Amino acid sequence: MFLSVAGLILLTVCMAVGFRMHSARQAAEKLVPESKESGSADLAPGQGEGWAVIGGVSPQVVGRVEIPSIGLVTPLLAGDDSTSLSEGAGHIPGTAYPGGLGTVGIAGHRDTHFRQLRKAARGMDVQLTDRIGTYHYRVSSTEIVTPDKASVLDIQSTPGLVLITCYPFSYIGKAPKRFVVHAELISVAPDDVKR
Prior knowledge:
The protein has two helices and nine strands; from the N terminus they run H-E-E-H-E-E-E-E-E-E-E. The protein is of the alpha+beta class and about 200 residues long. It has an eight-stranded mixed beta barrel. This is Sortase A. It comes from Granulicella aggregans.
C-alpha cells in the first residue's frame, strides 16, 4: 500500500514538472521564433539595455537556449532566482548579454530544463536567441567544479558562454558540485529575427 501511494505521488510530481517544462518551452517558442519565417519576436529588452527581474512579476522570457545536437531547447529568462529557474534557464545577473563582449552566464536545473546538458561535448553548436537574433557559440570544454568556483564566469580572451547546472545529474537532493559548459562565440553578427 505504501509503495502504491509513494508511486502515485512520484508520478504526479513528474507529470507536473513535465507540464511546466512543456508550457515554458511553448512560451519561448511563441516569443522567439524558431526560424526567420516564424514571425516577430516580442521580448524583454536585451543587449545594451539589459534584462531586469521586476519584483513580484512573473519571470520575463528574454530568449531561448538551444543545443540542437542533444535536443536541448529551453526558454531563457531574466535572472537566476528560483522562480526564473523553475520556468527555464536563467541569465546570471552581472554577466554579458548574447553576442556582447565578456562571458554570458546561464544557469539551469539539472533535473528539468538543463537535463540534456549532461550530453554536452566539445564542438557542439549552442544557439542563444534574443530579440536581436540568434548567436552561435561552439562548446570548447566542460568541467566539474565546486559551487564556490565563481571564476568560471571570468571574462576570457574571446567572448564566451558558460552554462551551469548542478552535478551529479542523478544525485538525489542538493547536489554538491556544478557541471560547467564553456563555449566560444563563433558569429559576431546574429542571424536576424524577422520583424
